[in-house]
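Lab meeting minutes (informal)
Scribe: AK
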Amino acid sequence: EEDSTNSFICVLKKMKEVRRMEKVVEETEEAFAERMETLAEQWRDLHARRAQLKAHVLTSGSTVKENERLRSQALKKAKEEKEENSKKESELLRARRELEALRKKHQKLSKKLLKYSPFKRYLEDVVENSQFRDIDDIISYYKALLRTRKDLLQSQWWHRQLMEQGKGLQQQLRAQKEAEMLQCRNDLVQLKASFDQAQNDIRQW
């Protein structure tokens, strides 16, 4: 039963992790597609601007100084755009690596999940033949049972602590009462001895 329970818990965790990974992969793919579209637009803008710069260099400026200034500006702009493109390519490469890592992790989890397919079918049968609407309801109910069990164990522990403290106080009180009774007996013995001595003194008088 303990192995079945551990397998049951493990398959719940694995299924939940697979859902989360599928969602992350989907979101990452969407973000990757958006990045690709943005980079494509930037490349088109870059080529258009380069074409404009070339046309401007060829058609404008009548002096060598002006042409040199335009050339310097064009080179500076091209350098900045090259650095920007390099940065974008690095980001794209990193995004591809992250996506590939997520895909590998998803495949690994999917393979692990295959080992627990009998438990998955069991959970589906439980959902079909119970009041639960889906497997997430079973997980929530199981977690609630765990919390209840934890609270009960905590309550039992506090109850034992209070009982032990009560026993200790009871023993302490009993010891105090016994000491008081012993003191009273000693005082009574002393009073009796004093009373006997007083009676002897009276007879002598």
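Next up, CB showed the second protein from the same session:
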Amino acid sequence: NLLAEKVEQLMEWSSRRSVVRMNGDKFRRFVKAPPRNYSVVVMFTALQPQRQCSVCRQANEEYQVLANSWRYSSAFSNKLFFTIVDYDEGADVFQQLNMNSAPTFMHFPPKGKPKRADTFDLQRIGFAAEQLAKWIADRTDVHIRVFRPPNYSGTIALALLVSLVGGLLYLRRNNLEFIYNKTGWAMAALCVVFAMTSGQMWNHIRGPPYAHKNPQNGQVSYIHGSSQAQFVAESHIILLLS
């Protein structure tokens, strides 16, 4: 009966919001305490404005996209729930788990304690919804197809660029010698090469945070401690130095 009540309550909360907000008491009751026959993905974060965690806000947006994709998918069930624990609402949970950084994603399996692989490697992989979905599939065998809300900014920008180029060619239709300018094409090629090797493409693909701020002491790190990952700020620093 206790398990049925817990599942029913989580389903009710999930029907209202894709991501269930939890404090310390709810976390201990629905995530830590048995019985439990469902998996729980928890995002530990610090979203309050005074924390000034821009990475937390960006990661939360991706997390919401993933949770919404699961909630509105045909495969939605009571086998997986998405929750969030904010530092200002559950500081005791952070202390209990010896957690001193945010954001952090953890998977709590139906039975047993979380293993090392149940903590998402955000620093190496990034926090894109697609990467989170792949990690969840590895841990739970629940496959989530990510659906993003339509974004027409790219289409509008492309249309404006085509219109601008078309207008320029029309205005200079009687003098198109600049198209055959080898120096201009060489400069354009160099710009593309520099963009591809500057780290911006890595940032675009992996979606790393701009920097990392420790929620405990407020210290901000702009250089990643591992050679296998980087922050967005690193590529900007290299750009300024060059």
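CB comment: The chain has two domains: 2-140, 183-241.
No objections, moving on.
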